[in-house]
Amino acid sequence: MTETLDINKVINTSTSSVSLDDLEKKGFKQVKVLNQANITRLIGEAVDRVLLERAKEIGKEEREKVIKEARTQFESLAKKRIEKERGRIEELEAESQTLGTEVETLKKRLSATVEMQAQRDQALARVQALEEEVRRLKESVPGLLSELEKARAEAQRLRTEASQAVSLQSELLRGKAQIERLDAEARSLRQAVGESEKRAAQLEGQLAAKDEELAKSSGASGAHMEQLLEAVSDRLSKVAQPTEISQIMLSLDGLSRRLSNISSGGGHGGDAGPDISSDFALNRLFDTEKEGGVESNVNKVKVKETQASNVKSALAKLKRLQKGVTDGE
Amino acid sequence: MGNSMEGNAMDIGSPSARVLTESSVGFESGRGLDVGTANLASAIQDRDGNVTIKIQRNAFIDIDADQYTKSMLTKLNVQYVAINNKMVVVGDPAFELANILNRETRRPMKGGVISPNESDAMPIEKLLLENLLGSPNYPNERCYYSVPADPIDADFNVVYHKGVFSGMVKKIGFEPKALIEGHAVVFAELAEDDFTGIGISCGGGMFNICVCYKSIPALSFSTARGGDWIDRNVATVLGIKASRATAIKEKGVNILSPRNREEEAIEIYYRNLISYTLEAIKTRFESSAGMPSFPEPIEIVCAGGTSMIGGFIEVFQDEFQAIKFPIQVKNIRRAEDPLFSVSKGCLVAALSDA
User: Which residues of chain B form beta strands (DSSP E)?
Assistant: First the structure.
């Protein structure tokens, strides 16, 4: 044999060392270990077995050739094996990376789940607190209902009292109005009586004057005097009668109607209008003029004048209409 | 009676006021007087049937004056009145002066009746009426003067107003007779329809409406918006004086074709006023138990200065179409003499009563 196969070297150059921690990190929990010596031994045995079989047939030169081929074969096989192992390692590394990503995802999900759990716990705590509040409120409801009932009863009592007060006020106002009306009637009657008394006094005066006149008149007959006295007496007695007061009232009504007519304003053609110029104190309106405090050239300056279309036709028609003649008659 | 819209187109007659007022010969007995918020107008008829109208803007303005100014005003044919050392220019010159000085005129009347803020203007008002009416032909000659009807959309009546003007006309020497403004429009404009129809006086302070059947008023009322309402609102939105707004309005606007922002504002408020008035009329008609049912469609005639603006009748007809009017109407038209209708109507009443 010219060249010795250094199996240890071959193994050392063709393999790489990986620590157990790294392997574990890569997900290898169990590995099969093949001792280098065993490998060497196995190779040797294999070679020896081959050689033994072929020793009978081949010479030294050929044996060396076989050994060389075997070495080459071995190296090729070892290389393939190593490459395969490397591929396997890379796959495992990729797988390990994927698993690492999954681990990260799971960690995040776990974190989110933990957070949700915390929120859920808080919500549950709030629900419990609310349930506690509801329970407490439910417990207070009967007391509140009782108070409400009392308040209603109080309100009803106050309404009743207010209604009674309004009724009393209304009665009071009616009474007051009645008193005022009676007062007015009393004033009116007093006034009427006063007027009657005045007229009676006047008539008495007239009577006295007539009496005196009659006394002076020598030609007056007793019968005539009696008639006169009777007439005056009759009038005096009538003055104080209710019928006279009624006449006064009727007269007042008449005045009232006239005032009402005046205040209704104009409404018809040719309304002469009430002669109320004096009522409106027109003299007061023109006081300035009366005092001679007005100076003007109004009458000296010509105002605008124009001829308008004539009104003959309208006037003629109106006159005919006023006479009761319509067109076509 | 409403805002003066005559502008410069009015033909001013030649006879002087003095000739008319002093002449008691040649005139029929009876006078018509339109007492309007914006204008005062008198009407008189001569023996030949010619009707003469004298018109005066119902406004004045305070000015500082001395003897020289008084003299100049007379030479310039400008009427003035000096009361207790206070001087006012009256009539159209007051209006022109207000526009020049960018001030507001003072108005003796507001919303159709005597203004509560200008009660001290009554002596001036009496002087203006004296000038317009002149002296009566004979003592207590009849003078029909216009009064507004009670408004349906404002809380006042015309009693005081009517009483004061009655007294004023009486003091001038006439026998006063009040005539509702819308009724006067019917007398002046609806003779051809036997004095049957609706007369509307579109005035400065109010719109006066009168429904007549054969010269008898069936329903009279007023609404408290008129030309002044437009002026006030236009002035507010344009930031100008109301007198200025009146001047723009009277310059010759056609509300169917406004040419600028000012005219657009006028058009908007005119349309609103017409719509408002028609709705008020409709509501009043529908609520009136005494409304006559006319056998035939009737005529509506619009008079007064506020009706004189271009496009008024067309817009009125437009707005009329938009509402369901409770009375059959055959025609809507403007009066023959819108600015003088009320005074002419009063004259017709006076002549027929003479």
Answer: 31-35, 39-45, 51-57, 60-63, 80-83, 86-90, 109-110, 113-114, 141-147, 174-180, 197-202, 207-213, 216-223, 298-303, 329-334
- Asked whether the beta carbons of residue A282 and residue B164 sit closer than 8 angstroms, the reply is yes
Has residue B220 got a pLDDT over 80?
yes
**Closest residue in A to B17 (Cα–Cα):** A302
- Asked, for residue B101, whether it belongs to a domain, the answer is no
Strands B39-45 and B197-202: unpaired
DSSP secondary structure, B160-214, as one string: HHHHHHHHHHHHHTEEEEEEEHHHHHHHHH-GGGTT-EEEEEE-SS-EEEEEEET
Cα distance from B42 to chain A (closest Cα, Å)?
Answer: 9
**B130-164: pLDDT as tens digits:** 999 999 999 999 999 999 999 998 888 888 899 99
- Average pLDDT for residues B332-344, to the nearest whole number? 95
Cβ contact (<8 Å) for A285 and B164?
yes
Separation of alpha carbons A80 and A82, rounded Å: 5
Minimum-distance CB partner of A310 among B51, B92, B144: B51
Which of A108-117, B19-28, B49-58 shows the lowest per-residue confidence on average (mean pLDDT)?
A: B19-28
Confidence of residue B326 (pLDDT cuts 50, 70, 90): confident
More confident residue, A41 or A264: A41
Q: Categorise residue B311: left if φ over 0, alpha if ψ from -120 to 50, beta otherwise.
A: left
Alpha carbon B127 to its chain's center: 18
How far is the alpha carbon of B159 from chain A, nearest alpha carbon, in Å? 5
> Per-domain residue ranges for chain A?
7-103
A61 touches chain B (CB under 8 A): no
β-partners of residue B207 are B202, B223
Give the pLDDT confidence of A185-226 residue by residue, as tens digits: 888 888 887 877 777 777 777 777 776 776 665 444 455 545
Q: Tell me whether residue B3 is in a domain.
A: no
A313/chain B closest Cα distance in angstroms: 8
> What is the domain count for chain B?
1
| Token pair 């109080």 in the structure block, residue | A154
Among chain A residues, CA nearest to B22: A299
The residue length of chain A stands at 329
- The residue behind tokens 């009863």 is A153
The residue type of A208 is A
What would the pLDDT profile of B47-93 be if each residue is shown by its tens digit? 999 999 999 999 999 888 778 888 888 888 888 888 877 889 998 88
Helix axes A222-239, A60-216, angle to 10 degrees: 170
For B301-321, the DSSP string reads: EEESGGGGSBTHHHHHHHHHH
- Which stretch of A74-83, A169-178, B128-137, B169-178 has the lowest confidence by average pLDDT? A169-178
Beta pairing partners, B32? B43, B144
CATH number where B235 lies = 3.30.420.40
Q: Is the pTM of this model over 0.90?
A: no
